[in-house]
């Protein structure tokens, strides 16, 4: 019978230690990137970490975070939603239309101007219905998520243009005589000197993290992304879960649309163009696998901070918008490459662990 020498044991153990260390660094890549970016811009841009600058940056980050948090579950199920930017734009336009134009009732010859307490829920419902429609088309007719949401993106952009004939709805602060004031406070108001949008960002992150870690729905999402067929055989209602996942994505996009329109005190049909790319970049950079089955809400939130700070830092440095696009594209590609490396290393580690268990048995 063959015996193992001490060198034969320690060498593989040392190799595994190095691999485990590298895997840990890959898992922490988003946090490391955030520290490095903060350090770089702190040195390169005077006053970068000043209170006023950080508040402005976090308000920008919040918009991307709303979209990224909503799409995280979608990507965990190995799906994609390219319509979130267009959903943001259309929902903002609907809010602007209700505030400035009112709901016209021709048969009575009047127009009803709803209060902000009506406008916000209606817009959120519209966003949720858009997401639900995506989910139903994808699950019922077996349409690829990329194709379905790409088509939806064009439909929503066109609808936003038709709603105002391509024009902007201005002055969303409302009219006191009509009782529809207060919409602008969503974007400009603050609590304890922190804007409402930032509070909303952290509250949404906590809510979705709770769903992911504590509720059966969250476990079902991960199970579907890991192995959809196995999840279905285990009794999980895969189609129903997917519909709800896309509904959540639409809701978060609608929330982002409300906040953007409130901050600008205006709605424009082109608002949110290419926002979906920043959201996807934040999710992937945060460690969520495009292949599905893996990802964390905290990682997505940190990814949103990385993308937001990078974008604002480059602007403050005076970097050309064209170079900003190049740099963002490189960040996305690098994030995907690192994600693939992590997938391969985790797969290899799992195989080694299985072999070790069999040998021990």
Automatic annotation (TrEMBL):
Q: Does the keyword Repeat apply?
A: no
What is its subcellular localisation?
A: Cell inner membrane
Keyword rRNA-binding part of the UniProt annotation? no
Keywords for the protein's UniProt record, in alphabetical order: Cell inner membrane, Cell membrane, Membrane, Transmembrane, Transmembrane helix, Transport
User: Where does the chain cross the membrane?
Assistant: 31-54, 66-99, 105-131, 143-165, 185-212, 243-266, 272-290, 297-316, 322-338
Gene Ontology cellular-component terms for this entry are: plasma membrane
Q: Which Pfam families match?
A: BPD_transp_2
Q: Name one GO molecular function term.
A: transmembrane transporter activity
What start and end residues bound the annotated signal peptide?
A: none
Q: How does it sit in the membrane?
A: Multi-pass membrane protein
Under the heading InterPro entries, the entry gives: ABC_transp_permease (IPR001851)
PANTHER family linked to this entry: ABC TRANSPORTER PERMEASE PROTEIN YPHD-RELATED (PTHR32196:SF21), ABC TRANSPORTER PERMEASE PROTEIN YPHD-RELATED-RELATED (PTHR32196)
Q: Which family does it belong to?
A: Belongs to the binding-protein-dependent transport system permease family. AraH/RbsC subfamily.
Name the chain's protein: Erythritol ABC transporter membrane protein
